[in-house]
Amino acid sequence: MTDLRTHAEEIHEQFSDQLEIDVEDVESRLDTLVNEYKVPLEEARRSVTNGYLDEAGMERDDLGGGGGNEHVELADIDTAEQWVDVTAKVVDLWEPRSDSIAQVGLLGDESGTIKFTKWAKSDLPELEEEHVYDLGNVVTDEYQGNYSVKLNRTTTIEEVEEDIEVGDDTRTVEGALVDIQNGSGLIKRCPEEGCTRVLQNGRCSEHGEVDGEFDLRIKGVLDDGNEVQEIIFDQEATEELTGIELEEAKDMAMDALDTTVVADEMRAATLGRYYRVTGPTLGRYVLVNDLEILDEPVDAEQALIKARSI
Ligand SMILES: [Zn+2]
């Protein structure tokens, strides 16, 4: 029974600020599941915790880690669902895409950068660009091999005076180019000063209908057999990658009365080939500065294993 009691105390501790519950109640819920219904302990814990989350109207991310977190450097974050403390500068803020998100952007420290998300219902103060903060109790997350941190209602935010020199987070990745995503090829950008947004059907999401400026870009995915990495080629890198220059791309689109022929042509020329690219990391992308064409799969054995598993 003492084992269940310990688990009950841990669960109780996580909800002590939000719910009026007592340890006995938690323990008896666990006891019913484990001893009556023979539910494995971990599953019982999850079930009981979810029950309290519902009662409190909370999400799993709102739960604290119970203090005593490790203070880590951003580049060392390589596991999801860890509760950690970081000291970081807000390098960039983006427009959140959802009402559930209050702020989204990029944090940086000496070791590199990482994306962060702050939930709207966390009721935390606004973070400002270029300011440095001690962030206590943030939770790590992972999506397709890229890590981020989430600020939730248990997170503590304290601005600090010291400045941080944000580290060079240039990365080199290699693998087969397995996908070229929508929004690649010949695109048009908003000509308004400082905007450069990619137009959708001739419209900028900020400035409405504008006379766009042509540009080349590829949003691609490299797969090394183990994991995938999203990469972006700017005009120069796209021309180097595909051998198709901007003027030529415009002619192609003009002849076909369709800009999508450019991306199709680029796909045909590059998909399945192996590349090594180097450049700075921006959010989940590596921005390609250097490009090298490889003859062989990086790790033929890994690629084969992967191929067999599909
Ligand atoms: Zn615009």
UniProtKB/TrEMBL annotation:
The keyword DNA-binding applies. GO terms for molecular function: DNA binding. The keyword DNA-binding applies. One of its GO terms (biological process) is double-strand break repair via homologous recombination. SUPFAM superfamilies: Nucleic acid-binding proteins. It comes from the Archaea. Keywords: DNA-binding. This is Replication factor A. The lineage of its organism: Archaea, Methanobacteriati, Methanobacteriota, Stenosarchaea group, Halobacteria.
